[in-house]
Amino acid sequence: MPRLFAVDSMAVLYRGYFAMIRTPLINSKGLNTSGIRAFLMQLVKIIEEEKPDYLAVTSDSSEPTFRHKRFPDYKATREKMPEDLVEQLPYLPRLVEALNLPYLILPGFEADDIVGTLMRLCREADIEGVMVTSDKDYMQLVTDKIVMLNHRNERIGIPGVREKFGCAPEQVIEMLGLMGDSSDNIPGVRGVGEKTAMKLIAEYGNIQSVYENLENINGKSLKEKLTADHENALLSRELATIDCHVPISVTLEDVHLGETDLYDNPKFYALLEELEFRTLLNRLHKKMAAGSKKQEEVNLREDENNKEKGEFVAETEGEWNVLEISCYKIETAEQFRSYMSEVTEGKCLALALNTQGDHQLEFRLLGLALCANQDRGIYLDLRNADSESTEMFAEVKKILESEAFPKIFHGLKKAVQLFTNLGIELKGIGSDVMLAAHITDPLGRRYDLDYLLGRKLNLRRKPIKSAEKSPPENQLSMFEEADKEEYILHCENSSIILRLHGQLGAQLKQTGMEGAFRNIEIPLAGTLAKLELNGVRLDVDGLAKIALEFDGRLVDLRQKIIDLAGEEFNPNSIVELQKIIYEKLRLHERYKVKPKKIKLGNQMSTDEETLEKLAADELPRTILAYRTLNKLKNTYVDQLPTYVHAESGRIHSTFRQTGTATGRLSSENPNLQNIPVRTSEGRRIRRAFIASGADKILISADYSQIELRVVAHYSKDPTFMDA
C-alpha cells in the first residue's frame, strides 16, 4: 500500500538540538548544527530506508495562529528559542528545496494542522500515513492506517496511544481538555491531572458526557473543580484539537517523492559542505560512484548525555575522513627561523611535545612539533647535544617566552612543568584543548587526541604506509626526510591540536563557558603545575615509628579476635570469618540481623556495614578495629613513604582537572584527597605532612558550605540568605 510520510521539522529540530545541549555539534564557523543535523539525518534515513511514495516537510510559521486569537496566552510560557537554534532555521527550507521536496508552511496555522490535513488526504485516498514526530498531540490522529514515527524510530499505533493515555486516539483531545498541557500553556481543569482525566474519560467517554453526569461523580472537591473550570475544559479541548482542513492547496501528487535525488545532487552537496557534514557527504559520494541507490544503514553517533536507542542526533563516524597534513623535519636553526618568518605575529601556534619520563621532576624534552597552519606541521628533534640542536633549542626558547604567538597545548600543566625544568618561563598561553574538551563535555570518559580526533573532528590518522611519501620537490625542499613514525605522529598531533582549538573555542563561547575556561581553568593549570613540582614534605621517620606501633597493636588485636572466637583462624579470610560468626557463634540469629548475600562461602557478608549491625558483640567490634588499623597501615603508613622522590625528598602527587564531571580536582600517585581525618589514628597520619622548612607553616583551609552559599547568592532566597 502507498505510504505518505509527513515530517514535523520543528519538532525534530528541537529534539535534536536539546538532545545535544551539553555537547553541541559546532562547525569551524562556530555554527551549532545539532538540530539541523538531527533533522537531516532523519530525513535521509526515511528516504533511504523507508522509500516512501509521498513525502512532505512541514513547519510552523512565525505569525500568531488561530489558537492565539482564541486564547492569547497559548504557548505564552514557552521560553524564547535559543539564538544558536534560530541560526539553524534558514537551513531547513534550503535543504528541503535542494532535495526537491515540498516545504509546507501556512501563516496562522501550526505544522500539526498541516500534518493533520495531509493525514486526512491519506484517509480519503485509503493509503498509509506516517507522522514523523514525538509530539503526543499527534496521537489524536492515529488510526489503523496512520501511525507516528518517533525519535527512537518506533512506530506508535493505536496500542501505543492506549498505553500513553489509556484511551482511544479520538479521545486524546478529551484527555487534554481535562488535564491541559503545560508545554502549550493549555489550562485544562485546575487540579485535574492525567490519572483523574484518564479515569473520567474511561468512564464517561468525553468531556460533554462528564459534565452531563457531574452529579454522579464521586468526590466533592473534584465536582467543584470541574464546575469552576467548565469553560476552560471546553476551551482546552478546542485548543488541543488539530485542524485537518487547513486552507493549503496541496494534493498527493504534489508530495510525490519521484524527483528527489540524494546521490547526484550538486546543490544538496554544496549545502552539506557548507554545514561541514562531511561524513554524510562522503558516504553519498561513494554510493553515487558505485551507481547504487540501494538501502544502506544510516549509522548514528550515540549522544553521551542521551543513550536512547535510535536517537537521531548525530552520525556515527564509521568512515571518517583521513587527516591530511604535510609533515617536515627541521634540521637547523636557520630553517626554523625561516619557518617562523612566515608566521604572522598573533597567530596561534599549536605545540605537540615529544617527552620522556613519568615523574614531574624527570620530564625530558626529546622534540616538539609546531603547527601554525592545520595543513602543515614541522618537527624539531632536540634530543642531541650538538651545537645545531643547542641553537635550535635557543630559538624555540625565544618563541616559548614570547607573548607574540598564543601557544595551544594538549596538556598545559605538563608543558609548564617540562619547560620549568628546562629553565623556560612559558608565556603567551593560548589554550589547552584537553581542558576545553573536558569543559564542553564534562561527562566524557576520554580526552586523548586520538579519541578527540574522531569524536570532535570526524577524522582518522593516515596509515603510516600511505603517509610515507616524499614531499613534492617544490615544497620546502630544505626539510629532509626523517623517521616517519615519530615525526609524522607529532606533526599530526600539532595539527589535531590546532583544529580542536578552533572548534572547541567556538563551542566554549556557544555554551557560555569561555569565561570559566579562561579565568579559572587555564590559570589553575599553571598553579597546579607549580604545586606538583614543589611537592609536600613527609615525616618519613615519624611514619616509621607509627608503623612499628601499629604492628604491635595489630598483633594484640589479632590475638584478641582469636581468643573471642575460641579457636585459631585467619581474621583476613572471609570464608573462615563466616564460619566463626554465622555457623559457630550464629551472631546474626542472636541479634536478628539479615546479612547481605555474597558469592563466597556460605554467601553471608562480613563487610563493615554488616559487622556494625552485629557490633553489640565484642568480636565484631574487635574485627572492625583490626580492619580499620590494618587499612591505615597498609594504605597510608606503609605506602606514603614509597612516593617520596629521592632527589627532592618530597611527595609529588598528580592533580587532574579532567578527572570528575563536577569540576572538582582528583588526585593520584598518591591520592592526597582521602587522607583520613575523622579518627585519632588518621589525624596522626595527616600530621606526617610537614612544612618544607623551619620558617614555614602549613595552613589548612576549607570553604564553609560553599555549595549552599552559591545557591543562596544566585537564588536570593530569603531563608537561604539569612542562614
TrEMBL record:
Indicate whether Membrane appears among the record's keywords. Answer: no
CDD domains in alphabetical order: DNA_polA_I_Bacillus_like_exo, H3TH_53EXO, PIN_53EXO
Which SMART domains does the record match to this protein?
53EXOc, HhH2
What are the protein's UniProt keywords?
DNA damage, DNA repair, DNA replication, DNA-binding, DNA-directed DNA polymerase, Nucleotidyltransferase, Transferase
Domain of life from the UniProt record: Bacteria
Q: Which residues form the 5'-3' exonuclease domain?
A: 1-258
Query: EC number(s) on record?
Result: 2.7.7.7
Reactions performed catalytically: DNA(n) + a 2'-deoxyribonucleoside 5'-triphosphate = DNA(n+1) + diphosphate
The record, for InterPro entries, names:
3'-5'_exonuclease_dom, 5-3_exonucl_a-hlix_arch_N, 5-3_exonuclease, 5-3_exonuclease_C_sf, DNA-dir_DNA_pol_A_palm_dom, DNA/RNA_pol_sf, DNA_polI_H3TH, DNA_polymerase_A
Tell me the protein family, please: Belongs to the DNA polymerase type-A family.
PANTHER family from the UniProt entry? DNA POLYMERASE I (PTHR10133), DNA POLYMERASE NU (PTHR10133:SF27)
Its protein name is DNA polymerase I
